[in-house]
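Late entry, written up from scratch paper. The run itself happened at the end of the previous shift, but nothing got recorded in the book at the time, so transcribing now.
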Amino acid sequence: MPERIVITGGPGSGKTSLINALGDSGYSFLPEVSREVTETAQRAGIDQLFLKDPIQFSQALLEARIEQFHLGQDWKSNYLFYDRGIPDVMAYLDYLGSPYSPHFKELSQSHRYDRILLLPPWPEIYIQDQQRYESFDQSQSIHDHLVKVYKKLGYQSVEIPRGSVDQRVEFVKDLLL
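Output as recorded:
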């Protein structure tokens, strides 16, 4: 079974660019699923499911991320990167101040990753779009909630410094040595 490595951070911190570059370098990864959940809801006429019904949105994300976690069991590589992890769901709900069932925490505790890599907020690369509606200040707050949730679950995350995508890839490769 591969080492499971989550790359997380607030919206617009460069996670997907880093994940894609790691994939281009030959590493295995599983993509972020929230855009897919958002786009499915939009096709059904719900513009922002996360804002309209955060629990329904979060439950859909939780299920998709658990499915991704289980896919990793049979992966044939040394490392498997995840664009966000199961605990991210709790962090976003905490950010909203939305109460949630204890099963969110139970599932986060029973599905453990090997490493958590955290990308800090970065105003110079932050861009809003149709799925990323948060302001930069909100992205910073989400980042803070991610740090708290992962720490509360017993993880020691490693912050990936700001830099070009290539520099970030090299930083991650050095961590794997």
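DSSP finds eight helices and five strands in the chain.
(Scratch paper discarded after transcription.)
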